[in-house]
Design a protein that fits this description.
Keywords: Signal. This protein is mainly alpha-helical. The chain is built from 2 helices and no strands.
């Protein structure tokens, strides 16, 4: 029984490795990763711009923009 479990686990790990390599090689993965990077950059730029409204003595990089975007 242990021998069968060991063989099954070895085959399962090998197949999951092949499946992961196939996923990483697709264009869908690169598009999703690019979209995540663009979203993170946009969020960090928004937070950085909203910090301009902070008082000098209490300037914090992670300041939150006022409700409504300050417009």
């Amino acid at each position: 029984m242990n021998m069968r479990n060991g063989i099954f686990n070895t085959v399962a790990v090998a197949l999951s490795g092949v499946a992961m390599a196939a996923l990483l090689g697709t264009d869908a993965y690169s598009q999703a990763a690019g979209a995540e990077a663009r979203g993170l950059k946009a969020l960090s730029m928004h937070v950085e711009m909203s910090c301009d409204a902070c008082p000098e003595q209490d300037s914090d990089r992670w300041a939150v923009a006022p409700v409504g975007g300050g417009k």
